[in-house]
User: Fold this.
Amino acid sequence: GDSVTQMEGPVTLSEEAFLTINCTYTATGYPSLFWYVQYPGEGLQLLLKATKADDKGSNKGFEATYRKETTSFHLEKGSVQVSDSAVYFCAFIRDGGSQGNLIFGKGTKLSVKP
Amino acid sequence: GAGVSQTPSNKVTEKGKYVELRCDPISGHTALYWYRQSLGQGPEFLIYFQGTGAADDSGLPNDRFFAVRPEGSVSTLKIQRTERGDSAVYLCASSSGQLGFNEQFFGPGTRLTVL
Assistant:
């Protein structure tokens, strides 16, 4: 069935390190892809999105590229900050699926040390 | 402006009891969503409303779960005969409901514990 697989955490990095969180999906057609972030004590927030193959989503220094050939949407940031410490969720909406039906991965907890 | 709010923030109940969880969406948002997040898992879709009607309820796990949105604003998720496996954080989100992609804005969640 449709699903998202993302790298398990926790991930611990030093400030200014390079970040990659891997995400692959299983779905037919061309789903819309998302990264959500949950900062400590806050609700889930949309970080970035890509709705078609080869699109690159970007926000707050984070980037992810929709790779149809590898069914991947890896999250990257060149230089992380302590304030990036949060749980990151990869998600998608099925091609032709209802607006509300986001399918999430299990989340990856990132801790950035000063 | 105010975001999505959910009440209560925490609910502890006993197995077999009935519970209601409330969601107040962002004012003017016509679409509303419920998700459930178990420990160590990502959110799992339950139901999606467009206005007063359920546009997609394919995620409701069984007939003990029911949700309403009678006036197209506030929504209540109702769980009958609660079981220990229902323990989770229940998330609500809302969006503008317009055609095309609508960002979902999430509330802080209600943590339900069934003893």
The CA atoms of residues 68 and 104 of chain A lie 18 Å apart. Chain A is about 0% helix and 50% strand.
